[in-house]
Amino acid sequence: MIYTKTLLTCQHSLLKWSGNNLSRNARFTFQKFSTSSLKEVRSKVQGVKRKLDSFEPQIDGLIIETSCLDGSKLWKPFIFTAVFSTTSLATAAIWEFESIHRKRRQLKDWFHHSRRKYRNDINKWWNSLTEGEKIFAPICFINILVFLLWKIPSFHPVMVKYFCSNPGGKNICWPMVLSTFSHYSAMHIFANMYVLHSFSSGCVSNMGKEQFLGFYLAAGAIASFASYVHKVLINRPGLSLGASGAIMGVLGYCCTRFPDLELNIIFLPFFVFKASAAIKFIMGIDALGILLGWRFFDHAAHLGGALFGVFWSAYGSTYIWNKRGPIVEAWYKFRKATFSD
Fold first, then answer.
1. 327-337 pLDDT tens trace
2. How far apart are CA 245 and CA 326, in angstroms?
């Protein structure tokens, strides 16, 4: 089974596109302001460069919170990351138990009720999806919904506050997760959702939908925390958003779990390479981006998500997920004492 990938060329194409457009914009600015002072021309060119620095929202009059970055502030997001990731995985384990328990119930009468035609069509479409597609569909829907909210100018203050992670902001916990579903650029959301769709089915078939969702949410939080740590170390506050960190966790898991899987690039189908080589190359690019201070992508978030995916493939499933028995047993006793079947 070959999964078509565009992530490798996406970063290169975006950088190349940005460079070409930067040159064209710079030349255009020079011609338009040829009678202005050298200082004004330089200011215009730098303005163009800043717009191409990253996927941060480009909003006129936007004020980014830049409070003093202090390493002591990381304890709170660290605790949040640990608690949220643990809760996500524990909830996923409970969800899996509930799914198995639910299947034992007799639901034949409910299925025999008459339904309208549009509901039958929706059910038919939904049932035709694979387990991976059933997980991908709601994730993609939420991402699209948040993307559309970005197009409403009156929502921008709320979106920046809650759907962009920023270690220098006042809200530094929940944005770590909410930013995972947030995209300002159409190209950004398209690339991320395409890659997630390509890998989600394989991961879900191997992990199960419950474990996959818990893993995906935890990967998003951990990737955001890695971004926080990097920004604090280099003392550079700023906004980060996008599902790339969580998706890198999915890539890290798949490429480690199936190292001999053959991948190719959509525009170069004849160029085939191993999954193990792909993840090493991508992680190497992100490590280089951190060392060289590249700002177009949040390389720290990418690398943090990928490392978590590699860890979960090697140790997480065996030593964490397979030890979920006490959590499920405690939930079963609580459920039995509180709710009736």
1. 989 898 888 88
2. 30
